[in-house]
Structure formats: C-alpha cells, structure tokens
Amino acid sequence: MDEAAKYKKATYHLWTFTASKLIAMLGTNVLSFGISLYILAMTGSATSFATNMICSVLPRALVAPIAGHVADNYPKKRTILLAQAGTILTVGGLLLYTETVGMSVYAIYVATVVNTICSAFSGVTFSSAIATLVNPERLQRAISFNQLSVSVAAIGGPIIGGMMYGFFSMKVFLIVNMIAYSIAFLLEATMNFTLYSTRDGDVKKEKIWEGLTSGFRYIKQQKVIKTVMWMSLWINLFFSAIVVGGTYIIIELLKVKSTHFGFIEASGAFGMLIASVYFATGAEVKVPLRFSKISLLLLASSLSLAVLPLLMKLSYLTIVIFYIVIYFIFAIFEMGINMPIGVYMQKLISEEYRGRVFGLMETMAMSMMPIGMLVYGILYDTLPATAILLSTSAIIVTITLVLLRTSVLKEAHPEFYNKEIVTESVTN
Asked: What is the fold of 217-412?
C-alpha cells in the first residue's frame, strides 16, 4: 500500500475507532447507570452496590497482564472482535435469563465479571494498537479523540440512563447495550490493525509465563518506562485523597446539596472534554515528560487549594462555584499529565511489548484505586481533612520532583536538552 493510501486509511481509522469507542462507552455507561439504580432499588443495600463495583474493577486488574500477553502474541483485530462479541453474548445471556427466570442480583454480578474481563482484553489490545492504526504524526490526535469519546460518554451515559430509567424496564437497557456493542463490532471489523505495524508477519508466540517474564525483563531494562510506571502507581494511590475526600468534604463537612455536587462533578467531565479538544487540535507536545511534570506539580498545588473553604468562612454559593472551578482545573491538569505521557509511551515502547506494558500499567493503576480508597477512607474518619489534603499535596510534589528529576528528563528527551546546552554555549 502506498503512503497516500495508508494516510487515507489512517484518517478513516481516526474517525472510526473514535465513533466505535464513543458508541460502546455510551452503551456501557447507560447500562452501568441502570444496573446501579436497579440494584439499589431491588436490595436497598449499599453492600450489594459496592459488590457490583468490585466486580467491575477487580477482574480487570487481575487479567490485564494476560490481556497484554494476548495482545502481543495474537492478531489484535481478532482479539478485539472476540472480546466485543463476548460482551454482546454476555448481555444477551442476561437478557435471556431475565426473560425466562427473572432478573437476579447474582446474575448481574456474573454478567458484570464476564463483561469486565472482555473489556480488559479489548481495552488493553486497543491501547497497544493505536500506534499501528495511525501514522506517528497523528498519535496525539488519536489518543485525544479516544479520550474525547470517553469524556462525552461519561457525560452522556448518566443523562441518557437517567431519562430511560423512568420510562423503560431493565430489559431495554440490556438491548441498548447490545445494539451499541454490535455497531462498535461492525465498525472495528473494517479496520486494519497492522497498517503501521513494524513487526514481521510471522510472530513467534510465547507461552503465557514466558511472555509475562520477558515483558517484566523489558520494563526492567527501560529506565524511563519504569519511572513512568512508578509514577502511575503512586499517583493513583495518592489521588484517592480527592476521589474519597472530595465527596466527603463537599457533602459531609460543607453540607453542599447532592444536586449541586452533581454540577461540581460534571465540571470535571467538562474539563476533560475541553482538554481533549485542545490536544486533538493543537500541536504535539515536544517534551512530554517535562509537560507532564509541570501539570502534575500544578495539580498538586490545586489539591492544596481545595482546603480553603474549610479554613475560610464562605457563602454557600461561593463554595459551590469554588469547587466547580477546582474540579474543572483538576481535569485539565490530569489530562495534561496523561495525554503527553500516553503519546510518548506509544512511541517509546517496542511494538512487540506494548500490550504487556500497558496491561501491567493498568493492573498497577487499578489495584491502587481500592487500596487508596480504603486507606483514605480510614484517614478521613480519624484525621482532619485539611491536614490530609495538604500532606498529600506535599507528598505528590516530592514524588514528582524525585521521580521526574532533571537527569531522568535528559535521558528521556536528549534531543531537547542537548539542544538547550548547545544554545547556551553559542549564546555565551
């Protein structure tokens, strides 16, 4: 295929995978919203609700490395289509069960676990395939479009689900999800997942344990990749301070109404949307790790500012507006961290190891979420919220300055720092 034809196909991919991701994520979010309300209405139990949340997180964290191994050793298109088909069949099975036996909470748990596993395989494989779907010059745009679809689905899913819940039964939610995934399946079936592949056609398949071991060895040898993974682990742990603390502080301590808290959370999704558009239409970040470092330091500073309503006497309206702005800023800076690193990692990691590296990163990130939530849940019950947020902000700043120190940035971007040195020498 000549370059002009490849470029045209890459443009098709750019829009097709964005559309497929948006449609599938909307279907997922609408169903998740409906199932959450259904479980609470059916059982009235927070434990049942929490169990379903665990079923949607834990299996993904456990199987992500295996999904990464599969992504590296088997055709990506086949893996993604099988995973999407698995989701369609699982939801279809739950619909059939509901029609014949009746809706059951335990049936929902089983379906959630299977869907989560399928999502792990399709998600990790898609992440490892982006660099082979589009040309390197449009990687940032592709990843931005990917995030854009997630943001739109995060905003639209609950809205659509909320409108549907008052008028339709749970069966309709299941049918909508199946239709959404069927459309995504058909779109993805038209894509060429080897368009910009640099690997030979005949890939030697490794056994799972051998593949995972070689993946670990590869990460161990790559200092910059290892640093980014450690950053991901620690940041996911410590940013549970705002995931847990935000709701606790705003609703419990400051007595903001739940409807107004909804606006605060929506501002975060809107911030992600704005940032995604910026990265999709703007020039590619030239020094990704330095950009992410600055964004991370600014995010940590914003975290410390979140304590101001606890220290100052502010009106109710001022408190709501303040946190709308803070959550919006959080989302902007979060995208400023994730987007450049995502593009950089796509280019840095060898194609034959991308699945395993992204799979391991996902496991590390997702495993830190429940640990962080548990730790900070205990801390907020025993210590003042102000002290927790200020300490966490200081810890994040320290970790950032240590892990992303200048020597690491020079190793990651020698072309930029060597250029700076040459410029200084000429100037002097």
From this structure: Growth Hormone; Chain: A; (1.20.1250)
